[in-house]
Batch of 2 targets.
Target 1
Amino acid sequence: KEKVEITKAQRALMKVIVDAYNRHKIPQDVAKKLLQDQYSAEENFLLLTEMATSQVQVLVEFTKNIPGFLSLNHEDQIALLKGSAVEAMFLRSAQVFSQKMPNGHTEVLEERIRKSGISEEFMTPMFNFYKSIGELHMIEEEQALLTAITILTPDRPFVKDQQAVERLQEPMLEVLRKLCVLQHPQEPQYFARLLGRLTELRTLNHYHAEMLTSWRMNDHKFTPLLCEIWDVQ
Ligand SMILES: O=C(Nc1ccccc1)[C@H](C1CCCCC1)n1c(-c2ccc(Cl)cc2)nc2cc(F)c(F)cc21
């Protein structure tokens, strides 16, 4: 039986990542707004583009706190952010969607999102992902580490020094692996299930641009930052 223990250095790394992660709370406000009122497709689209734009800014702040990230080659820093921003947003959406809410609130939230303007064809893959994240009942340390691991994916397009990114991602994977063993002793496969969600997350990446351009309304306006990050317009 492997005696798993998180070292002082690993605890320090985890604290840096969780503190940085806790500084981005925006989508909670989105959930609250969506629960308060029903909006038109146009209002929902505007809300999404505003939220997604601020999510990118917050993601940059979070990423700057990942030890070693700022020492990477500058083009590679951009390539990692550009390559992970959409996934980070869907991961964050899933975490917000699966957080504990008063009875019936999740159903209302799901209904509001289903009617927000997104085309029908994307609902199943999106909510399947949200529910599969929910079933994991991740603690915030796992959520924060999973987001950092997603950003530090070495094989993003245009990354030149993949080894340098691997050297940053590996310690995160090791801490997460230990955390999973300690948090879910009955589930030896929990860590593998967690990483499996990142594969599901990449499939949502394929849909994201079309999810936006097929939003049930005319004349989709994007912010310059979103055009950059979301491959739209
Ligand atoms: O805002 C959002 N997500 C966000 C996340 C992270 C940071 C900032 C924003 C949007 C809403 C959706 C309804 C209209 C208004 C925006 N959102 C999404 C979502 C995102 C992108 C596409 Cl293409 C489709 C759906 N899934 C969500 C789940 C939640 F529990 C949820 F609360 C908000 C969610």
Target 2
Amino acid sequence: MTLSSKLSDPLLLRQYAYVDGKWTHGEGGREEAVLNPATGETLGHIPWLEPHQITAAVDAAEVAFRRWRALRADERCERLLAWYDLLQAHREDLAILMTLEQGKPLPDARGEVEYGASFVRWFAEEGKRTFGETIPSHIPNAALGTIKEPVGIAALITPWNFPLAMITRKAAAAMAAGCPVIVKPAGETPFSALALAELAERAGIPAGVFNVVLGEPAEVSKILCAEDRVKALSFTGSTRVGRLLLEQCANTVKRVSLELGGNAPFIVGPDMNPKEAAFAAVAAKFQTAGQDCLAADRILVHESIHDAFVEHFAERMAALTVGNGLEGEIDLGPLIHRQAVEKAAAIVDDAISKGATLVAGDQSQAPGENFFMPVLLTGVTHDMKIWHEESFAPVAGITAYADDDQVIEMANDTEYGLAAYLYTHDIRRIWKVLRALEFGMVAVNSVKMTGPPVPFGGVKHSGLGREGGVTGIDEYLETKYYCLGALGSVSGS
Ligand SMILES: NC(=O)c1ccc[n+]([C@@H]2O[C@H](COP(=O)([O-])OP(=O)(O)OC[C@H]3O[C@@H](n4cnc5c(N)ncnc54)[C@H](O)[C@@H]3O)[C@@H](O)[C@H]2O)c1
Ligand SMILES: N[C@@H](CC=O)C(=O)O
């Protein structure tokens, strides 16, 4: 059975890049296979564009920019809402494509389609509210104010773990602001991006406004970063690559937004019911098989409830099912590729060799070579890799702490600063710890923290800027100040 036959609308599977409203093949014969991480089967191929084809995407975006920015905000809103409607109408196909290329269980993929579409609707509306301001003048006979203008062409480079939502959270904001976009998706998961392009075309988004380029990642990124006509770069991915791109954007002094790695602490106070907290921690750790920038990587539990917490955590973890996300009731799909499995195994071995206890996690039960069974380690300490590196795998590490000051120090003991979780009902503890945590986002007594109204982003080496929320569109807007002088006597100036 071919991949396209699994879809109600086979045209959603595209194996070309999308530039200037045209499906584009590579001109140098280079291509990449796209694999199903659950089965290893080849789903299809994508072309790698040649450097001049990437430049052609910039040419197309430059032309499209003139017309797209000239539309009224409500006209752009209409087109984006049409795109949103199509995402909704095709959500099942989009979810199937996502599960096939990314591996996450189908219900999670449906959730991501819904989540991704919600950013399109949010920014369609926000585009109508890019207000400037009136400034009380200190200059005689003058009127002062600001207007917001689109920054220009935006390059968007995105990861494989959330192949659709990481694109729409950027693209919808940029497009609503009046900017055309050039998306470079991860090579592992290009089909979600290309399906977005197909639906953008059907929604009447003009040629050159939403482009998807494919190619050798370092080569494509270098061209986009060096291009002076590209005015903004928004990247989601690892801190390692984010640093490289920031450097590459220095010469052209671009606007750079970075959503990078996380290493979230999950803090459990002494007043918590250990079962309730353990179940929440399992949910925060194992989403997308741990391949989530928000994954609870370091679980810090007050010593008075540590043992009971571990017991409930292990019990809940044992109930998780691992398998092909298209088949049956699955909680955890595969990791994205074999290297991810090897990295996870190395992190576990390192922790055990340095004194951590393996409570559960038997890899002989893994249903395929890209699968990693959930692991629970206790006695995790500062000198272990698991403390400092994102495992990006279903590996949970638990540590006991004695008091609030100690847990704050432990939680902040990382270069990352994306998200943190805090479970306690003591309002004084909540306020103290919340204020002391060096993270861009803190969820208190909640695992869910994201969504369109939220300013998503990190501090420290987790990134620059915020996506979503009322400020997410600002990443794609310039503020132009004006001073209208010599107006004669202006009342109120
Ligand atoms: N903060 C967030 O919102 C957020 C969201 C999702 C994922 N992430 C992070 O993303 C990482 C996992 O994703 P990943 O493995 O795809 O990240 P990655 O950095 O390897 O890749 C991200 C993107 O960069 C491209 N890329 C890879 N190497 C490159 C290079 N040398 N030069 C230019 N581009 C290059 C990839 O093709 C992909 O499109 C994790 O660190 C995770 O925490 C962060
Ligand atoms: N879950 C995150 C993506 C991180 O990997 C989000 O909601 O953006």
